[in-house]
Design brief:
The complex is a heterodimer. Chain A has helices at 19-44, 145-156, and strands spanning 69-74, 79-85, 91-97, 105-106, 110-123, 128-134, 138-140, 161-164, 172-174, 180-183, 191-200, 215-218, 221-228. By secondary structure, chain A is an alpha+beta fold. Chain B is 12% helix and 36% strand. Chain B is built from one helix and nine strands; from the N terminus they run αβββββββββ. The model of chain B is unreliable at 1-27 (pLDDT under 50). The chains are: A alpha+beta, B mainly beta. At the A-B interface, strand 1, strand 4, strand 5, strand 11 and strand 12 of A face strand 1 and strand 2 of B. Strand 4 (105-106) of chain A pairs parallel with strand 2 of chain B.
Chain lengths: 231, 180
């Protein structure tokens, strides 16, 4: 037989370590490797998280909100009447329609009355509102003495007045506070308001000719509805 | 192992986002308001004019005037004589009038004013007018009508008035009455 070389033997002189350490090292190696792998994975894509969702709110068919309204508008152009009253305020000639006010020539005792109707459209579950107005004015048509006198006599009469009647009909009703209104339902309108403007040229006890052939002009008034916070 | 994202974390984030949106909307929406509505009352450019009341007299074909003078020669009277003068009285105005006739210092004469034409003879109805005035008629709005001015020298006139000249004025006053 040939002499075989002696088997190689490697002798590894290992450092004497505890078994756990070796395990830790192994574990560490493993974790590191895994972390490395993880890191590599993080760099390659995005992380995720869980989520879920549901619809919030009313279902389809009941998910609309509608606002109310509050409007006032003239229902007609208004009309004039003229009557004749004695010094006691008694109608001697009942009021009759005036076809053309510009053709009228008033005398002491004549009383002109203008009436106009307005529609109120209101809706709102918690709508409360008041009704206010500004008065139309009677002013001298010029600085002429007769014009000034006529304006003065009309404005001095206790019967000259600009009034707004209470709202009637429709869905507007009085609220708790006097002068405040609400709607009884969000349908059923419009309600109506009538404005009346009385111009009285009074028949007096003594002669006063200063206003003969005088003229006055009339400015428009207004009605305003205003929402309030309290019933 | 990735860090787990808790549901709480998710909700918190969503709330923060929602709040952020709300805040943004509120800051830019403007001020809050209440409802109101206005409508004008009355017609534009309205003008109301007054009438007048004006009286004029007319003698024959003469022009109407607020004052007329009767010719003196017509009134040369003897006791018991009557002189009549037909006149037209015109009222311009939208009122009904009560007509008075007044005379100041007509001496021994008796002066009368009556509605209608003068009679062919005799004295017109009604008393002689005085300084206080006597109602002799009503005047309709915007009307014209005849009136009679009659002057009488009574038969009892004193002799002192012979050849005397007496000038005086008859005035017609009108007052609006409360019935048109």
């Amino acid at each position: 037989m040939n002499n075989l070389p002696a088997p190689c033997a490697a002798v590894v002189n290992l450092a004497p370590v505890r078994e756990g350490v070796v395990m830790n090292k192994i574990a560490k190696s493993t974790i590191a490797t895994a972390a490395g792998v993880v890191l590599l994975m993080g760099g390659a894509g995005s992380l995720a998280y869980w989520n879920d969702s549901v619809n919030a709110g009313p279902a389809a068919g009941s998910n609309s909100i509608t606002a109310g309204t509050l409007t006032i508008a003239a229902a007609n152009a208004g009309a004039w009447t003229k009557g004749f009253y004695n010094s006691a305020g008694t109608a001697v000639v009942p009021p009759a329609a005036v076809a053309n006010l510009s053709a009228v020539r008033i005398v002491p005792g004549d009383r002109l009355v203008y009436s106009q109707t307005f529609n109120v459209n209101a809706s709102g579950d918690d709508l409360f509102f008041t009704i206010g107005s500004t008065v139309g004015a009677v002013t001298a048509a010029s600085a002429a003495a007769a014009d000034t006198a006529l304006a003065a006599q009309i404005n001095a009469s206790a019967a000259t007045a600009f009034t707004i009647a209470s709202v009637t009909g429709g869905n507007v009703v009085p609220a708790t506070t006097a002068g405040t209104y609400r709607v009884s339902a969000n349908t059923g309108g419009p309600s109506t308001i009538t404005a009346t403007w009385t111009l009285d040229f009074p028949f007096g006890a003594t002669p006063d000719n200063a206003a003969k052939l005088g003229a006055v002009t009339l400015s428009q008034g207004s009605i305003t509805l205003t929402q309030v916070a309290a019933p | 192992m990735p860090r787990s994202v808790t549901p709480r974390g998710v909700l918190t984030t969503a709330a923060a986002l929602a709040a952020g949106v709300v805040v943004a909307v509120g800051a830019t929406a403007g001020s809050y308001a209440y409802l109101n509505s206005t409508s004008v009352v009355g017609q534009a450019g309205v003008r109301v004019s007054a009438s007048t009341s004006l009286l004029t007299l007319q003698r024959g074909a003469d022009a109407p005037a607020a004052s007329i003078a009767l010719p003196a020669a017509q009134y040369r009277l003897l006791p018991g004589d009557i002189v009549n003068q037909n006149l037209a009285l015109t009222h311009t105005g939208n009122v009904r009038l009560l007509l008075y006739a007044l005379v100041a210092d007509d001496g021994p004469l008796e002066t009368r004013v009556a509605s209608g034409a003068c009679p062919a003879s005799g004295i017109v109805a009604g008393p002689a007018i005085t300084a206080q005035g006597n109602v002799f008629a009503t005047g309709a709005p915007n009307s014209t009508g005849p009136i009679c001015l009659q002057v009488l020298l009574p038969a009892s006139a004193p002799a002192s008035v012979e050849n005397a000249t007496l000038s005086y004025t008859v005035r017609i006053d009108a007052y609006q009455i409360g019935v048109p």
